[in-house]
Structure formats: C-alpha cells, structure tokens
Amino acid sequence: MAKIPSPTETAWCIKSLIAVFQKYAGKDGYNCNLSKTEFLSFINTELAAFTKNQKDPGVLYRMKKLDVSSDGQLDFPKFLNPNGGLAVACHDSFLKAVPSQKWT
Predict the structure, then answer these.
(1) 48-87 pLDDT, tens per residue?
(2) 73 beta partners
(3) What are φ and ψ of residue 55, in 5° steps?
(4) Neighbours of 42 (CB within 10 A)
C-alpha cells in the first residue's frame, strides 16, 4: 500500500483558512457566508494584534465596511480577498523593515 504524504505547510495554511471561516460563519444564519457581525467578530478576534497596531485607520475601515454584494454577506472566495490583501501588506512591510532576510 502506498504511503500517503504528509500535508505540506501550504496545505495546512489553506485548511486553517477554511477552518477559521467555518468557525465564524453560520452563527447569524447561513453557514456558507459571514454576516457583517460575524466578519467583525473574525476581525476583532483573529486579527486583534493587527488591528491594535494598525497605523492606517483607513485600512481597518475598509475591511469593516466590506460588503461585496450589498447583501450583508461575505462568501468564502470574497473572505479570501481582504486576507490576501493583508498578507501582501504584511509581506511588503516586512521587506521594507528587513530587506535582506526571509521571514520564518
């Protein structure tokens, strides 16, 4: 029988994003979307360290006002957009602070 390879770090990251989305989705109704309240709960809990240290209040305002379909709901693909943008911003910030090192 073939040995099943261990999940990669990237696979674990994807699994974590899905798990976090599912943790917050559905408390206000439909479990495939985040309501505005659920999304704010996600931001205030999961991104608390980021929100407390954010120097640009406009970034947080845009994240909190995110409602891509104007129905008060955020599906998983749209949930990835602000998280991906946040990852890019953190990566860029790290490169500016320590341009010759890798972040591990």
Answers:
(1) 877 676 666 565 555 555 655 667 788 898 888 878 877 8
(2) 35
(3) -90, -20
(4) 21
Residue 52: its pLDDT value, please? 73
Q: Tokens 């090192």, residue?
A: 101
Q: Alpha-carbon distance 101 to 95, whole Å? A: 8
CA nearest 54: which of 67, 40, 65, 43? Answer: 43
Which amino acid, residue 14?
I
Q: What is the pTM of this model?
A: 0.72
Mapping DSSP onto H, E and C, the string for 24-88 reads HCCCCCCCCEEEHHHHHHHHHHHCHHHHHHCCCHHHHHHHHCCCCCCCCEEEHHHHHHHHHHHHH
Task: Taking the CA atoms of 76, 70, 82 and 47 in sequence, report the sign of the dihedral they define.
Answer: negative
**CA–centroid distance for 71 within its chain:** 20
Q: What is the pLDDT of residue 24?
A: 94
- Is the domain 31-104 a CATH 1.10.238.10 member? yes
